Amino acid sequence: MANSPQAKKRARQNERRAEVNKARRSRIRTFLRKVEEAIASGDSSAAADALRSAQPELMRGVTKGILHKNTASRKMSRLSKRVKALSA
User: Where does the record place Basic and acidic residues bias?
Assistant: First the structure.
């Protein structure tokens, strides 16, 4: 239990940040799911559009500290590889 005023404040801040981070993480996952669904349906143009809209969301997650830079890059690389295979 937080005893000092500073520790109590940090606990409150951490709760608020956790909520915001949870929403951001959920938003990123939604965009990634849209790409996955487009790939599964076999629609290359829809998959490419979904990938283009997911990329800034992933990078925003990196900027906000939700994802590590390499994690986002790895996800983008793997998704773009799969989208490219659809159109080929």
Answer: 12-22
- Rg of the chain over Cα atoms, rounded to whole angstroms, equals 17
d(CA 39, CA 63): 27
Rounded-to-integer distance, Cα 65 and Cα 25, Å = 10
Angle at 22 between CA 9 and CA 58, to 5 degrees: 125
Those residues of the chain that have pLDDT short of 70 are none
Half-sphere exposure of 44 toward its Cβ, with a 13 Å CA cutoff?
Answer: 8
The model's pTM is: 0.87
User: What domain range includes position 22?
Assistant: 5-87
Helices 5-41, 44-63: axis angle to 10 degrees equals 170
- Domain count for the chain, please give it: 1
Report the distance separating Cα 83 and Cα 45, nearest Å.
Answer: 9
